[in-house]
Design goal:
Blueprint (H helix, E strand, L loop, with lengths): L16 E4 L9 H16 L3 E6 L9 H14 L8 E2 L4 H13 L3 E4 L3 H13 L25 E4 L6 E6 L3 E6 L7 E3 L7 H11 L4 E5 L3 H14 L5 E5 L2 E2 L15 H6 L5 H9 L13 H7 L10 E2 L2 H14 L2 H16 L8 H12 L6 H8 L12 H6 L2 H15 L6 H14 L4 H13 L7 H8 L1 H19 L1
Parallel strand pairs: 1-2, 2-3, 9-10, 11-12
Antiparallel strand pairs: 4-5, 5-8, 6-7
Helix pairs in contact: 1-9, 3-5, 5-6, 8-10, 11-12, 11-13, 15-16, 15-17, 15-19, 16-17, 16-18
Amino acid sequence: MSGNFAVSATGLNKQVVTRFAPSPTGFLHIGGARTALFNWLFARHHGGKFLLRIEDTDRARSTEEAVAAIFDGLEWLGLTGDEPAIFQFERSARHAEVANQLLAQGDAYRCYATPEELAELREQQRAARQPMRYDGRWRDRDPAEAPAGAPYVIRLKASREGETVIEDAVQGRVVVQNAELDDMILLRSDGTPTYMLAVVVDDHDMGVTHVIRGDDHLNNAFRQLGIIKGMGWEEPVYAHIPLIHGSDGAKLSKRHGALGVDAYRDEMGMLPEAVLNYLLRLGWGHGDEEIISRERAIELFDISGVGRSPSRFDIKKLENLNAHYLREADDTRLAALTAPRIAARLGLAQLPANAAELLARAMPSLKPRAKTLNEIAEGAEFLFKNCPLDFDDKALALLDESARELLGKTADALGSVQTWTVEAIEEATRRVAEEAGLGLGKVAQPLRAALTGRTVSPGIFDVLFLLGKVESLKRLNDAGHASASRGN
């Protein structure tokens, strides 16, 4: 993808333009996904544009695999950009052009301080318990004082007087004394631009009007404003959103669920609409509404609804939301999503040709009791097992001699069913229970164990109906023989 685009001569476009700018050094983190969502929704709400930028200037850590993972995660969530993504590294010449312009107009300068000198300065500041920042030793010196051919960096000549104020759309009015800001590096000694320079130039050239990002970047904004003011560019609206914490209030980590978006899809079996709904409610809200569709979110979302306090990640709430969206989801879609999971559980390359149709018919029985696609797969596994079944210990314990006798009577009753419907199956099974003087559960539990090899499944009449008459009777017969042989 090309990194070239037109630079506006009049500054920022007045149309709302937001951007999501991840670094391709790993997967798309769940916190990054929320930032992308907030940017996407804000642009959609205001009829604007949502753009993507891959900040790949860290060449040592940026990988093609990470870029692919970011695009894959965003596509799964439906948060693709409105234009082809920009790759920051491709624009290095433009970044250097801005640095040299600041140098030419006196808003930047060459710094010839050696690494050894800077290390000594930091050590002195550390010993004196002073803030560690560059002391401006080349700020007003004549470059001619430097040794001929000595390497140098280009530093921004930051204002030292007064204060810098940001009217942040989330954090409110934030003030920093300019004396606390040092002269940051714009171009390294090898001529490559720093992240701080590249971000500002790219935001300007892309026409970004609203910079919506994590509040860990708030301090960066004050330093980046020095470049913006030096170039005479219009300042964007800043909105620094609080980070996500774990349920215990600590910084979000893997033990809280700080995984890549792909893990929520592949390993945990979440639906994208559930993840989006959950991320939306992490730090933003509208009254008591919990279930909010994408269309409703576009209608309601604005930065004013974002709180200033960190939100807490709760995996149980996400699972409950996912359960809701599973119940609402199309059965054919769920069948397609679940089939490969079932095949993997059974060690198969793929399920039989009729699997999709069977799964779709089974979904009304499977999805009401499931919170994830994995749980649906677990619940549907019995449909594709071959006899003899592998009985777990709890199921085998139910198949004692009295149960085998009961199963024989049930098999006889079911064998006489002419039309294999749920109603006819239920009637035959209840008749067996009544004749034996037992409650239905006393028949249903060994029946479930015999048909599925487990003690948990969809409703027993649904199990029988979905398996079909021939397979059901075969499994009942096999279970009787298997349990009897194990009991001897």
